[in-house]
Amino acid sequence: MERDNLLAMASVKTTVDIQRSAKKAVEALYGSDIRDFKVRVVFPFPSEHNRDSWDVQVTFLVDSIQYTVDLMIEEKNGQVTNARLIDKMTPL
């Protein structure tokens, strides 16, 4: 039973939950050497009144390159169902 608790993913309902889940997903995709991680925008998906996921846009730096990534995070269990690179650039 304890093993089941370790495998269970937490729901994502607050801004702190969203930031934690997004950062964990980005670290899984881009590694742990991430700097200046920021959540830029969060939208309920598919709508504010019928939400089941969060559409989250984040920015961060890896090796002096700035990335902007869009993540779809399920509210009920925190699973990332889609990750899309929006932009990759060298900051001025």
CATH architecture tag: Roll
CATH class: Alpha Beta
The domain count comes to 1
- Please trace the helix and strand order, writing H or E for each element: HHEEEE
Radius of gyration over C-alpha positions, nearest whole angstrom: 14 Å
Q: Widest sheet: strand order?
A: 1-2-3-4
Strand content: 35-45%
The beta-strand count equals 4
* Shape, principal axes of CA atoms: globular
Cα end-to-end separation: 52 Å
What this model shows, in words?
The protein has 92 residues and is α+β, with helices and mostly antiparallel strands. It has helices at 2-7, 15-30; strands at 35-45, 53-62, 65-74, 80-89. A 4-stranded antiparallel beta sheet has the order 1-2-3-4, covered by helices on one side. The radius of gyration is 14 Å and the shape is globular. Residues 1-7 have low confidence and may be disordered.
Summarize this entry quickly.
The chain is an alpha+beta fold and 92 residues long. Helices cover 24% and strands 45% of the residues. A four-stranded antiparallel β-sheet has the order 1-2-3-4, covered by helices on one side.
